[in-house]
What does this fold into?
Amino acid sequence: MTRMATLRRKLHEHVMSAVLADIVRGEYAEGDLLPKETDLAEAHGVSRYVARECILALRDRGVLRVRHGVGATLAPQDEWQLYDPTLLEALLSSPVGRDALRELTECRQVLWTEVAAIAARDP
It folds into this structure.
């Protein structure tokens, strides 16, 4: 596989980014039901398979809860896997991005302080 091929994003990742943008803009609240696969596919001009892959990718990142026969609902933000680059990018570009960045900075400071302390103890 060439370097260019590894940098290309899959189609469902583009749809996922668009859905995430809607979510972080506040178009959906925690617990809201997202559009069905068919509606999502139609809205983004993709196949139902691509829409399903998008929903599953968001589920795998903790953004959605999927229940058979019910659909996909927005999970609480504290369940999201914020170290995922796609989620982090969406959050940082959102209105709450400043808060998320501040929290990440605080975590980094705590972590690096501990790492430095451990390094100083071990010869």
Summary: The CA atoms of residues 23 and 29 lie 8 Å apart.
